[in-house]
Design brief:
The complex is a heterodimer. Chain A has 16 helices and eleven strands. By secondary structure, chain A is α/β, with parallel strands linked by helices. In chain A, strand 10 and strand 11 form a beta hairpin. Chain B has a two-stranded antiparallel sheet. The two termini of chain B are about 40 Å apart. The chains are: A alpha/beta, B mainly alpha.
């Protein structure tokens, strides 16, 4: 079957379960695709072909034996290189961990394996997930399949690009300020940041622990829901993991009905700084939701304008603390250990050589925000703003069931455009940051191409804490409505990549 | 300017990151722009607003007090930059000349 790489995960799972196509063949075709196009895209930092094929064959054996299969058994998945997975390096796209092989699996990886998904390899990201373009990766940027001269978003640009380049039907990411949703938006794919505590952080390399949240990436809303179901749920190994049932995201994705749902348009997430093509597609998506029977209300979240400033203090403060562990003593890069240098000298040299500019900037800002004399004005004030963001959400969710906005103010920008202007780069996350500060669920789904550049635009859907299912309900309704208008999925229009002859 | 080259040098020292003169000259103005852009947080919330450190309410988590096997030493040492006699070997920690 030559349409394997374009099929949805749900379709591939059905083929495997019915015996129409073997898991091994499906895995092999994806590995072939990676070999043929990834030199151009650079979505993968490591491809794990032999183990993936063995995992796939095990699913085929299980099926042949008549044993019951999990819903996504045999379906390939790409894993952001921030999740520990034994047997392969976990690098966080940093020189600091270039050859580090983790001694244990993250809970998410264990759950993927327990549900018989096939792990194709590890995807590229901004160094330690710090960035909005994958340009801070120590191993070179990932390119956006829509336009190889543009960024795929970040930090999870590798996972999003792997989906848009048809190298994998599913991927996983982490979202601290938008690292799942912004890449989804600029690549025309689906990405969900679950409620904070919904998916275990155990074995995921930490950036900012009160904000980090793993989540699913896919090409369709239903596929994301199926993957969410596999990843999510209580984990005793993560003390912030929520001991509550996983919201029924799969049923919501299948229901795809917004009749009578109250949908709030956030007044503060639009206007100046938003590209005309983004605003036009967003307005059309809201119109579609109204035509499907949703009640549209405008809501104000007056403190959202301060979320950016609060985030860029809280996040670096947590970064400066979390990344103190990279001291060159127990694991990771060690530089300058000549038998004469002291431990402190070796630490300074190792951190200088192991970290890139963006990581250094954030550690230094965080050290400043936490230092005596500045703590109250910066970190303390930012924590109060965080309270105000949360109360803004609570007030808005009393008026409506979900909130919507563009997922990011612009479409994919060109390489180099924002790399030396950190503030411009940080503004890529303007719309996504509030949900990280408040911890509620949020998603991005594709809503078309901007008129001015023909590049994908994403709709952000924000739902209350533990109401992740509403993101899927609305996302699936938008997807169904637009796919019908377009006469097929948006990704049908991604330019074909030239396949390398083998 | 909120943040000078000297400030950045001191902070980098506290964070144990060696920065060259060239890096200091490049990073200091960028950091100053970032800090200036976020300084407005101090003017938003009144005294009466409580801080939020965590998005969901944190409660102490207990687990059953039972012994479990630890990770094998060789697995933990496998990623070490230097190993000696089943221990992490680290550079000298005292000030005297080696």
């Amino acid at each position: 079957m030559n349409d394997t790489i374009h099929a949805t995960a749900a379709e591939l799972a059905a083929r495997i379960a019915s015996g129409a196509q073997s898991a091994e063949e499906i895995t092999r075709l994806h590995l072939d695709r990676i070999a043929a196009v990834d030199e151009q895209v650079n979505a993968f930092l490591a491809v794990d072909a032999e183990r993936a094929l063995a995992q796939a064959r095990a699913v085929d054996v299980k099926r042949a034996s008549g044993a019951p299969l999990a819903p996504l058994a045999g379906v390939p998945v790409a894993v952001k290189d921030l999740f520990c997975y034994q047997g392969l390096p976990t690098t966080a796209a940093s020189r600091m961990l270039e050859s580090w092989v983790p001694p244990y699996n993250s809970t998410v990886v264990d759950r993927l394996l327990a549900s018989d998904l096939v792990i194709l390899g590890k995807t590229n990201l901004d160094e330690f997930a710090m960035g909005s373009s994958t340009e801070t990766s120590a191993f070179g940027p990932t390119r956006n399949p829509w336009d190889l001269g543009r960024i795929p978003g970040g930090s999870g640009g590798g996972s999003a690009a792997a989906l848009a380049a048809f190298e994998a039907p599913l991927a996983i990411g982490t979202d601290t300020g938008g690292s799942i949703r912004q890449p989804a938006s600029v690549t025309g794919t689906v990405g969900v940041k679950p409620t904070y505590g919904g998916v275990s952080r155990y074995g995921v390399i930490a950036m900012a622990s009160s904000l980090d949240q793993p989540g699913p990436c896919a090409r369709t809303v239903l596929d994301a829901a199926l993957l969410h179901q596999v990843m999510a749920g209580h984990d005793p190994a993560d003390s912030t993991s929520i001991a509550a049932p996983v919201p029924d995201v799969v049923s919501a994705a299948r229901k795809a009905d917004v009749k009578g749902l109250r949908i709030g348009v956030v007044r503060e997430l639009g206007g100046e700084g938003y590209a005309p093509g983004v605003e036009a597609r967003f307005a059309a998506a809201v119109e579609l939701l109204a035509s499907l029977g949703a009640e549209i209300v405008e809501v104000s979240c007056p403190h959202f304008v301060h979320a950016f400033a609060a985030y860029y203090l809280i996040m670096p403060a947590e970064v400066s603390s979390n990344l103190a562990r990279y001291d060159g003593m127990r694991y990771g890069l060690r530089v300058g250990d000549d038998g004469l240098a002291s431990t402190e000298q070796v630490m300074r040299a190792s951190r200088a050589a192991g970290f890139g500019d963006e990581v250094k900037r954030r550690i230094i800002i965080g050290s400043y925000a936490l230092s005596a004399g500045y703590y109250d004005a910066y970190y303390g004030s930012a924590q109060k703003v965080r309270t105000l963001i949360r109360t803004d959400f609570e007030a808005a969710f009393r008026q409506c069931d979900v909130l919507v906005s563009p997922a990011t103010p612009t479409t994919a920008f060109r390489f180099g455009e924002r790399l030396t202007d950190p503030l411009a780069m940080y503004k890529s996350d303007l719309c996504t940051i509030p949900a990280n500060l408040a911890g509620n669920a949020a998603a991005s789904v594709p809503i078309g191409l901007a008129d001015e550049d023909g590049l994908p635009v994403g709709l952000q859907i924000m739902a209350p804490v533990l109401a992740d299912d509403r993101c899927y309900l609305v996302g699936a309704a938008v997807e169904a409505g637009l796919t019908e208008q377009w006469g097929g999925p948006l990704l049908d229009r991604v330019p074909a990549l030239k396949e390398k002859a083998r | 300017m909120a943040l000078t080259v000297q400030d950045v040098a001191r902070l980098a020292d506290l964070a144990r990151i060696e920065l060259s003169e060239e890096e200091l000259a490049r990073l200091a103005p960028q950091l100053d722009v970032i800090l200036t852009a976020v300084a407005s947080v101090a003017d938003v919330a009144g005294q009466d607003v409580p801080p939020t450190s965590h998005p969901v309410r944190l409660e102490n988590v207990y687990r059953i007090d039972e012994t479990r096997p630890s990770w094998p030493a060789e697995a933990m040492l496998a990623g070490a930059p230097a190993v000696e006699d089943d221990h992490f070997r680290v550079p000298r920690i005292l000030d005297e000349e080696a």
